[in-house]
């Protein structure tokens, strides 16, 4: 009968085969023990609660106690029992967070000069080793370079990136992975059977989803449930009881929230957050669940085969709306939320609300911009007006005398320009439209996804013509002076200007001087509007047409 302890200590693995979900590591260590190929330093890295410290202690047992043919330490040996109780003198465990100074490491280094008193090796386990200071790392480095023969270091960390490369290179590194839901549920079932805990399978799945791959967190949650609802009228612990205890929102709430986000319903999204906050629900759980559901939506839209055992299964309501979801909008919302820095475990709904506002406001802005661009494109196609040429009176009269009005309408072909009130209107059908420049489109794509100072450079450049490149210059002509002014304002900020130049150099493989041109600067094709315009000319000009040449309208009227 195991002593009364908290679950994560009571059910801590004692041998390699009891370590859950890390077979790739335990198998290697067992073979190393059998073949007596012992390294002087090991680095165990991975998320919290996945078995790093437990594996380090098992390795210390295997190095000092009797082992089986499989490389497992004998559980009932004197040394194994001594290590389990924390009384083994040749196992020194150090917390890197509280013993992080150079003096602590110097003291450790001095103690390595003494031979082990009981076992074969003196084992030093430094937990959270990334918390050591740089001087402390430098002091430890010297010991790792020339370690005593019978000393083994086992360094454990959740953040290997903070450890100097000189330290990492002198260790055998083992990366622990986050546990799958299947592994977690399997271990929880074993504990429930031994502890006589009766609960619905949905409860174990809920715990697995909530623990995010950490066995220690899962064991703690199961223990809380057993204390609160265990052995009550011989009834099973229900999912509702679990959600009530941990302040979790119902799965349907997270799905409903995701639907509101994908419909850009800001009002109802904020109302739902406020409602869950007033209920005392765990907003961190709602936030994480929403990101997980949006991720699964993204994967499903991309036709990625999902692991049935992994996380949330989308219900029929979500499946129905998926075909109508734009994958770019989904990606932008997911990216904005995932980049949000959440602090204090969302004790206040403010951070959550600001994240949602930022995501939807940003995406709504993109949608509106796309609508404007699409409308402009439709306008260009529907009006079929590119420019207006006013012929001189003599030439125009000759053309009209050669053919009567019915003949004009009958003889206009698909590639000809119609004549209205003696004004020639050039047809710009889709087949005559200039093809897109792939290099320019790539620049637009880059700049629309680049964070600028005030305005989105990519969106402003959508209102410019395809640039001309000559003599080391890229000449950009804007369709309106107002957009040009906004672009100049944005380019006045060094960050925006630098990112634009970098995009140009990346795409065109060379630096180019930027030359900005307004419509009036483009040439002689933008003359001032004549005072002698006919009504139809004025209408065409208001729609974006350009006057190529003028004839004497007053003389035309007199004739």
CATH T-level topology of the largest domain: Rossmann fold
- Estimate the global geometry from the Cα principal axes: flat
CATH class of the largest domain: Alpha Beta
In the CATH hierarchy, what is the superfamily of the largest domain? P-loop containing nucleotide triphosphate hydrolases
Biggest β-sheet: count, sense, barrel? 5 strands, parallel
Strands of the biggest beta sheet: in what spatial order?
2-3-4-1-5
State the share of residues found in helices, binned by percent: 40-55%
List the main descriptive attributes of the protein structure presented here.
5 domains; 25 helices; Helicase, Ruva Protein, domain 3; disordered C terminus; Rossmann fold; 12 strands; 559 residues; four-stranded mixed β-sheet; five-stranded parallel β-sheet; single chain
Q: What would you note in describing this structure?
A:
This protein has helices at residues 7-10, 23-34, 52-64, 78-85, 102-111, 134-145, 165-168, 181-195, 201-211, 215-229, 239-246, 251-262, 266-279, 283-301, 316-321, 327-338, 350-383, 393-402, 405-411, 438-448, 457-461, 481-491, 494-508, 535-542, 553-558, and strands spanning 41-45, 91-95, 122-127, 151-157, 172-175, 388-390, 419-420, 423-425, 468-470, 473-477, 513-517, 547-549. The chain contains 25 helices and twelve strands. 50% of the residues lie in helices and 9% in strands. Strand 7 and strand 8 form a beta hairpin. The strands form three sheets. A five-stranded parallel β-sheet has the order 2-3-4-1-5, covered by helices on one side. It folds into five domains: 7-175, P-loop containing nucleotide triphosphate hydrolases (Rossmann fold, 3-Layer(aba) Sandwich), CATH 3.40.50; 181-246, Orthogonal Bundle (Helicase, Ruva Protein, domain 3); 251-361, Up-down Bundle (Zinc Finger, Delta Prime, domain 3), CATH 1.20.272.10; 384-430 and 527-559, no CATH class; 438-521, DnaA, N-terminal domain (GMP Synthetase, Chain A, domain 3). The longest helix is centred in the middle third of the chain and has 34 residues, at 350-383. With 559 residues, it is α/β, with parallel strands linked by helices. Mean pLDDT is 76; it is low at 375-434, 521-532 and 552-559.
